[in-house]
Records
---
Amino acid sequence: MLVSEMAETHSLRLPERRRPRRTQVERRAETRARILAATIESINEIGYQRTTSAEITRRSGVTWGAVQHHFGGKDGILGAIVEDSFNDFSAGLAEAFESLPRKTSLPRRIGTFVDAAWEHFGSARYRASFEILLADSVSREARAEPERNDLSWQNEILKAWTRIWHRLFPELDLGRRRTLMIQHYTISTLSGLASLQLLAGKPPPFLRDELELLKKTLAREFRGAGSGNGKED
Amino acid sequence: MLVSEMAETHSLRLPERRRPRRTQVERRAETRARILAATIESINEIGYQRTTSAEITRRSGVTWGAVQHHFGGKDGILGAIVEDSFNDFSAGLAEAFESLPRKTSLPRRIGTFVDAAWEHFGSARYRASFEILLADSVSREARAEPERNDLSWQNEILKAWTRIWHRLFPELDLGRRRTLMIQHYTISTLSGLASLQLLAGKPPPFLRDELELLKKTLAREFRGAGSGNGKED
DNA sequence: CATTTTACATAGTACGTGCAATGAAAATGG
DNA sequence: CCATTTTCATTGCACGTACTATGTAAAATG
């Protein structure tokens, strides 16, 4: 389905007052959102390669001039998608943390944590980000461009992850090394689920059980890791 | 490093008898291997996008005519990589199974299984296959080409996986649904590790520990799943 | 209402990419 | 040693893609 059909499907039948005098910020926000949505949709439906500039304009219903104005170019769209995805992810984790009553049991905290994380990794936007980063990051180091964009998103995402982690599970003391290992394992599994969904074209059939299995694994690793048990390396 | 430098680094200094009268099968095998190796290397180093036909000929040291002759075109190379990767994977698992003495303990069997599986998922060839499939499979369903190539590699890989699985762990009876779930979970984690390695550009720092954690998880799930315990859905 | 700024539209273009077409060299087989 | 097949090399080209350049409409500003 084309994004352009979402908001103005019947606009052809109502030619009177087609544009009800929208304000600039409204226009700006809507076209930006349409471009981003169209790009994400296209990447998920036909893949990164085939998501061309023409395809984006076709799906979004806007012209290339709009893209140029708002994002500068195609790279601008892709960068914005990755950035938004990451920001919403941090916000979502923080929100899940806030909405949790004080002194919730460890398994329950793990549950909400994994669920909130999957809210991110399971989204179409993350899948798009994944393809974008994959297509971009590998080639970036070849060009020897050390920084330029979001100064190594990897460190950023790891930092945010660790921050939330420590706030959610303050009593844990597994040692820095083991903590990072379990974090990386969790990300691997969740991102792996997302990437397999990309390859299969449909969500994993046993998704819920797999998330439960991950929770169980985390719970097991956390058990017996109360304050003071960790050994730093 | 260029693949073309591997075998004929000093050939410029020994112009006499440059080509010691190789047989056809030798020539064929070598150039094919060089092309495949160059493509895999390129995908891992500079990414799928930048792995152009020119880049492949540059790294392999052969011309486009050779590629055309052996693979028909670029798609031929990519397809061969995926196919070879999958075949070697099945062979590797089977071999690991054969080399295992009768009545090995369950944890040890799990260990060799995970290690053998990572031998596959951790290889540069798999990472290349992953990018190829990602770039190709998503766009294929958009073009509505139901079969054509290896008739849904997904089913094939799942079948082979299940086949080995049942030979390695014949006493398990978790029920079909739960078995498939755990398989998918294992693939997700391993493939996730591989994809994160692609994004990071370097192998995961805690790889060994993460594999151990996966083994532990599997062992725990298998425990108490002797013959007759499974419940079919 | 006039002016300035912002938001979008249209047409043309430079460039990379994969490949077709053709030919030469190398090996095989008699 | 010759004919045939296999293997590899060269050149030119059609095509898609992202983008530049420039023009127009719409909203803000006073």
---
Amino acid sequence: MTSVNQLDDLDARILLALDENPDATVLHLAQTLGVARNTVHARLRRMTEGGALGSFSKRVAPAALGYPLVAFVWIAISQASDSAAMASLGEIPEIVEMHATTGDADLLAKVVARDPQHLHSLTSRMLRIEGVERTSTALSLVEAMPHRVRGLLEGVAGR
Amino acid sequence: MTSVNQLDDLDARILLALDENPDATVLHLAQTLGVARNTVHARLRRMTEGGALGSFSKRVAPAALGYPLVAFVWIAISQASDSAAMASLGEIPEIVEMHATTGDADLLAKVVARDPQHLHSLTSRMLRIEGVERTSTALSLVEAMPHRVRGLLEGVAGR
DNA sequence: CTTGAATCGGGCAGGATGCTCAACGGCGCG
DNA sequence: CGCGCCGTTGAGCATCCTGCCCGATTCAAG
């Protein structure tokens, strides 16, 4: 997420209103927020095109697709095979997020799986990728706080 | 995300179509997918109410709200203060996700921040919470793979 | 001051909505 | 097997909304 357009308070208020009611019409948002219809429309387009508003599928819960198990996998990469390993890891759809991080390993992957055996087969698959030297897995026992950005939105909206 | 309704292939195809075009009307989805309008409507309502389709704000990129920095913070909790510490951590809006995990620490938090100084003040704030014994931070250098579930959706949709 | 971008209010031609209804088909159960 | 339940279907109603366009105004930057 490099160089995303920064949202102002009206942008944030629009998104908050949509968080409350995702089916709200542009016209209703405009009336509720006290701005012109065109303005809401232009703002939404800008947020979508500018990357601030991501893809619809970000709303989908992997557990509903049959992947109730979440794990965090630290992956150590050998430097020579960096990009090829990344591409191979990208072919595993169960890796739903990945960051190159500071710390002991090179990558931290958020992985979903059907069950523990499936998770094990996924980490084995990762280890077979050329360039992947080591993995270390921490299992999520409870999703203590599901992904949320509402508090951040409220801050920008001035609440 | 406990006991989420499982999605079938039509659910997944609806979500894929919406991923392609989030503004698609129910009528257009119905025509495209070859089902009745009411069916799409009923499916969407069920996915929303059943938890499979999460809140709109999950689409919002924290970087666009002024939080470009991502970090993963391992938090060790003393057992006596478990729920009070959790509640206090929940009051920090920059903690955008948190899991109770296996491994060395008790919690893994995904934290966003304005800059390194801000991150430091956040971890200091966490350490001041009664029950939080220790934190260990890994900084995300690059979001190598932004959050994605499209591949999982395609699997369920039968592609 | 000039310029460009954003907002505003209005409008056009066409389209969509939430909800209701009755009928039908498939499935599970006794 | 018969029955009940649930989901899907197609149709319709009254109401509302859309993408896009336009000219005028406002605001910020040079």
